[in-house]
């Protein structure tokens, strides 16, 4: 019996069947296969309800994005085929200015919000997640999804009119992972988390991607959850979900938080240290963690993410009082904030395309030597 397929989505739309390419490689059956590896492709088959091999499901394709790849992800013995949408970025405003923004569009040119329109889940089994990269590894600019602005572009945080950069706290340089957020999540500031004893920070949930590739700002990366740490940032719960790109060369070796220390020894310790000290050069106290800084496992982290997704739904459907977050979107059916594509495009075109570039200070490269008590 075939236990793993890899397919490519055809360039034309399909209706009740899905065109796939079978690999020449047949793998032995496993109870769980994760994300299938790419293999040479040969004959083309139509998979329908009558001729699909036992144990496989047929997923109707509603829309294709060019030759966007289909990834086979299995949970138990039933794999699911998923087409990962591709997104493009549109940069507006002068780089290194307070006007600089990164907007998002689908591959076919529709403007979307990275917070509301990019799906949280990247597969039907809800085991792979879309992560929006705000800050590539080893960079210092504190970039973040703008909550207050329409379509929620990425912008650089500003303090007292100056662009913010994180300090280099020896031996760390900039951010030590690809840093970003899960779309369609929200840490509710009115919810007292029983695990931490603190309320949410009114942001989408933060994600650390620990793979080998240095991502680009605005990348939408498919990741799997490995665990989480609970930062207490100025009295608010600020979950940091630890993940890895499913295409990373060692992704198959990492399935839970204990695997991180085996494959990347020292990274968890460095992560906790980084968050404890990164604000100290700005004159702020050491950050604290719930659970004494202990990282929780993938199952725990998954429940946290699911909860923040439920909170987001109440926000985008206007079931709770809005706390200054723009919920403008183009895809969330039933949302009172849903707008047509032309209205979303107008938001982008009206955004600033100028701005005064701020000179880059040499202090950004300075080492800060911090001693924890």
Number of strands: 22
Q: H/E series, N to C?
A: EEEEEEEEEEEEEEEEEEEHHEEHHE
The assigned structural class equals: alpha+beta
Give the percentage of residues in beta strands: 25-35%
> How are strands sequenced across the largest beta sheet?
10-16-17-19-18
Instruction: List low-confidence stretches.
Output: 1-83
Helix coverage percent? 10-25%
Radius of gyration: 22 Å
Give the rounded overall mean pLDDT: 83
Largest sheet: 5 strands, mixed, barrel
Describe the oligomeric state of these chains in a short phrase. Answer: single chain
Question: Explain this structure to me?
Answer:
- The protein has helices at 257-263, 267-277, 298-316, 341-350, and strands spanning 7-8, 18-23, 34-35, 41-47, 69-75, 78-83, 87-92, 101-106, 111-112, 129-135, 143-145, 154-156, 158-159, 162-163, 168-169, 178-181, 206-209, 220-233, 236-245, 288-289, 296-297, 367-368.
- With 373 residues, the protein is an alpha+beta fold.
- The N and C termini lie far apart (59 Å).
Features:
373 residues; alpha+beta; five-stranded mixed beta barrel; four-stranded antiparallel β-sheet; globular
Q: Which secondary structure elements does this structure contain, and how are they paired or packed?
A:
Elements lengths: L6 E2 L9 E6 L10 E2 L5 E7 L21 E7 L2 E6 L3 E6 L8 E6 L4 E2 L16 E7 L7 E3 L8 E3 L1 E2 L2 E2 L4 E2 L8 E4 L24 E4 L10 E14 L2 E10 L11 H7 L3 H11 L10 E2 L6 E2 H19 L24 H10 L16 E2 L5
Parallel strand pairs: 15-22, 17-19
Antiparallel strand pairs: 1-5, 2-4, 3-5, 5-6, 7-8, 8-9, 10-16, 10-18, 11-12, 13-14, 16-17, 18-19, 18-20, 18-21
């Amino acid at each position: 019996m075939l236990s793993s397929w890899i397919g490519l989505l055809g360039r034309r739309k399909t209706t009740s069947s899905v065109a796939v390419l079978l690999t020449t490689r047949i793998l032995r059956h496993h109870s769980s296969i994760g994300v299938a590896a790419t293999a040479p492709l040969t004959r083309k088959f139509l998979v329908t309800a009558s001729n699909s091999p036992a144990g496989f499901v047929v997923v109707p394709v509603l829309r294709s994005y060019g030759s966007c790849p289909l990834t086979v992800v299995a949970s138990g013995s039933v794999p699911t085929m998923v087409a990962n949408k591709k997104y493009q970025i549109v940069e507006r405003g002068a780089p290194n200015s307070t006007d600089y923004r990164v907007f998002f569009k689908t591959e076919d040119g529709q403007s979307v919000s990275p917070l509301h329109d990019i799906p949280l889940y990247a597969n039907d089994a809800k085991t792979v997640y879309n992560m929006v990269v705000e800050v590539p590894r080893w960079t210092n600019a504190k970039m973040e999804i703008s909550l207050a602005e329409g379509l929620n572009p990425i912008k650089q945080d500003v303090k007292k009119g100056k662009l913010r950069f994180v300090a280099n706290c020896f031996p760390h340089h900039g951010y030590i992972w690809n840093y970003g957020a899960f779309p369609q999540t929200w840490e509710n500031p009115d919810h007292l988390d029983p695990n931490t004893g603190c309320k949410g920070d009114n942001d989408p949930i933060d994600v650390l991607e620990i793979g080998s590739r240095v991502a680009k700002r605005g990348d939408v990366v498919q990741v799997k959850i490995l665990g989480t740490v609970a930062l207490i940032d100025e009295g608010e719960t600020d979950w940091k979900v630890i993940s890895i790109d499913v295409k990373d060369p060692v992704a198959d070796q990492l399935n839970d938080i204990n695997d991180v220390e085996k494959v990347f020894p020292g990274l968890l310790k460095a992560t906790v240290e980084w968050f404890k000290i990164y604000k100290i050069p700005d004159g702020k106290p050491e950050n604290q963690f719930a659970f004494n800084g202990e990282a929780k496992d993938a199952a725990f982290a998954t429940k946290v993410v699911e909860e923040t997704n439920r909170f987001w739904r109440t926000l985008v459907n206007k079931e709770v009082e809005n706390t200054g977050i723009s919920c403008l979107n183009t895809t969330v059916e039933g949302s009172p904030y849903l707008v047509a594509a032309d209205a979303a495009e107008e938001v982008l075109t009206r955004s600033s395309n100028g701005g005064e570039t701020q000179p880059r200070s040499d202090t950004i490269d300075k080492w800060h030597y911090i001693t924890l008590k």
